[in-house]
Each structure stands twice: as C-alpha cells, then as structure tokens.
Design brief:
The chain is mainly beta. The chain has one helix and 32 strands.
Length: 383
C-alpha cells in the first residue's frame, strides 16, 4: 500500500477496491486490484490529503454495486468509476453543502441501498479546528444521490441540540428493514434517528444515550441491526443500548429493550453474527458476547496484548476476526464459549484500523503498509 488508511477494502468478484493516501506525495488515491493475484489494475489520484489528528482523509471505505465503484474522502470528494477505471462522475460535496468540521477528520463511509447512494455529514456547526472558516451551510444532513449520474435526489437536514464536540460523529449510515418499512439509520450528535429510505424524512429519533448533553460525547461506532432491535454503543466506553424503534416521533426509555451499563466499545462497531452480539472494549481488548434479544451475557474474554483495537469485528465461517493497530490478527470461535483459535502478527505500525474482509473463500487483511489475501492452498486464490 502507498500509505496508511482506515478504509476497509471493498471486494466484488475478481476486484478489490482500496482507498489510500500516498505517504510521499499526500495524494488521495482510488485503487483497484486483481483479487486473485494482487496486481494493480488501475490507480487514480482523487485529491490531496488534509491534515488532522491521528487520521487521514482516506478513511471512508469504498463501496461497489457490480458495475460502478464509489470512493469518498474526508475532503468531501466523491468519485464514481466503472470497474475498468473509467471516471464516470465526481462531486465536491463541501462546495455544494458546506465544510465538514470534525476534530479527527470526516470518516463516515457511503451507503448503497434501494438504488440510492447515501452520504451523511454529522458535523460541528460552530467551528473548524484546523484554520478553515465556519461553513455558511452548517446543518448536519442525510443526502441521497443518484449513483448513475451523481446528482442529488434530496437532502434531509438533521438538527440537533448537542453541544460542541458532541455534535460530531464518525459513524456510517445503516439500512434497517422491519415490518415492511425501509429506513436509513443515522447515529450521532446525541441522537439515533430513522429516516424513510425513499424520501429522507425523519420518522423517529431516540436521544437516550446522552440526556444531559455532555459536550464532548462524539460518536465513532456505527449502529448495528439484529432482528427488530438496533444496538448502539454510547460514546467513550459508556453503556450499550438495544433500541426497538417501532413507533414514530420522539422515542423514550420505553423503547429500550435492554442496556449493558458496564464499560463497552468506543471505536469498534459491534458484530451481530449467528444469533449472538459481540462487543469489544477496544482499549482494554475485552470482548463480550451477548444474547441479542435479552442482553444476557454469555461470556467475556480478555484478549491479551498491549495495542488498542480500533477496527471493527468481522464474522465469517463460524469465526470472529479482529485486528489490532499493530497488525496482530486474532481469530475466535463464534459460539457460546470463548475460544481463541489462532493469532498471528501481520506487521504494521500505529494505524491498522481496517476491518478484515471475508469474500469468495478468502480473507483480505490490510495493515499499515500491506494488503494480504489469505486462502487455503486449494481455495479460490489458487485457481
């Protein structure tokens, strides 16, 4: 890899798409690789990095639909290419919809759902911390874009009474389907909100995780859906909440199915896999397994090691995969008993934050400076 990035690779068929920064030039890059050999098929410069604390502007993950791939960057550049690398369209969303003021740099990945490309901006409305003047257009928003043309379909403002840094979020929009409804979930700025997927209209909002409006409670981890429940981690290792949003308007405590009031994840998004919910305290490397419907704790496991884990968990093939910032991979059995199956050091320094990808019988593991493809000798990579 030409440089570090928190973006998770996107895999479709025989293609692997990777966002990156070039450490030597500061260029932001869109890269396509052959999934079988790792050969670089094309590489496009999409802009220049913007300096922020402990992060870079290649943090949002790319997303593909089989015909096109979309790359988004913290500089608010949004680019669409076909699988051969032909540029289709591009947008400067900061120019169109205002500058994003986030202390650690914009990091939310785009969402493809119901034929629309969704982008969120949960940002500070009062100030920018890196010398840029505040934007004239300051509302946070959920934006739907036509993926074929790049044109806006609609923009839904997302108002908040959150204060200061608590206005900021680095989470990604998530689809939610239940009882015939198709919604897009947005988490941050003191609220979890559900929006009509077709129109963007806000259907409901829940604000139970920061009722006192503490001014530095920004959100990093994205919401997770399991059945009719939505699981969210409060900021800075606060409570885990299971919310059942089966009503409209402002939702109260009665819509919280259960809570876990001990220290929980801050940056790593939980995993709902094979009827279990896995939540990682990323600083302490403490993994907890829950029964999703009731919140009953099945087990906790202390994963030995000194480096924090910022990447989110991956579930595949009856296993749970995680990687820490120093590039050590730990593989656990998915089940009712804690069991570490394997651990190995892949290498890297400081910024191994991409989640492990399982696709086509392979694992794709991104460290600070290398992308690995792992498969059995008789598996897809050998064919």
């Amino acid at each position: 890899m030409p440089g570090p990035s928190g973006a998770t690779p996107a895999v479709w068929g025989d293609r692997v798409f990777v966002s990156s920064v070039d450490s030597k030039t500061g260029d932001l890059l869109a890269i396509a690789l052959d999934a079988r050999t790792g050969k670089v098929l094309w590489r496009k410069v999409t802009g220049k990095d913007r300096k922020v604390m402990r992060n870079n502007m290649a943090s949002p993950s790319p997303i593909a639909d089989g015909k096109r791939v979309y790359f988004y960057y913290g500089t608010q550049g949004l680019f669409a290419f076909d699988f051969a690398g032909k540029p289709l369209w591009s947008r400067d969303l900061e120019k169109d919809h205002g500058h994003n003021a986030d202390m650690f740099g914009y990091s939310s990945s785009p969402l493809l759902y119901k034929g629309r490309l969704y982008v969120i901006a949960i940002r500070n409305e009062r100030q920018d911390r890196y010398g840029k003047a505040p934007a004239a257009k300051t509302d946070s928003y959920l934006l739907a874009i036509d993926p074929k043309t790049g044109k806006d379909l609609w923009l839904q403002a997302r108002p908040t009474d959150a204060r200061d840094e608590a206005q900021e979020a680095y989470s990604t929009a998530i689809p939610y389907e239940v009882a015939g409804r198709s919604e897009v979930l947005v988490y941050g700025a003191d609220y979890l909100t559900g929006h009509d997927a077709a129109t963007g209209a806000e259907l409901w909002r829940w604000g139970g995780y920061n009722p006192r409006h503490i001014n530095h409670w920004r959100i990093i981890a994205s919401p997770v859906v399991g059945g009719d429940l939505v699981f969210v981690c409060g900021p800075k290792y606060e409570h885990l909440f299971a919310v059942r949003p089966d009503a409209r308007g402002a939702l109260g405590e009665e819509k919280v199915a259960w809570t876990f009031d001990k220290r929980i994840s801050d940056a790593s998004t939980p995993l709902c896999y094979q009827d279990r919910l896995y939540v990682l305290d990323d600083n302490r490397r403490l993994l907890t397994c829950f029964e999703p419907k009731t919140g009953a704790q099945k087990w906790q496991l202390q994963i030995s090691g000194e480096t924090v884990i910022r990447a989110s968990l991956t579930g595949a093939d009856g296993k749970v995969y995680c990687i820490d910032e120093a590039g050590e991979v730990v593989v656990l059995a998915a089940g009712d008993e804690p069991k570490i199956l394997h651990r190995t050091k892949m290498g890297g320094e400081e910024m191994c934050r991409s989640s492990i990808v399982a696709a086509g019988g392979r694992l794709f593991i991104r460290t600070t400076d290398t992308l690995y493809c792992i498969a059995s000798p008789a598996g897809p990579a050998a064919k």
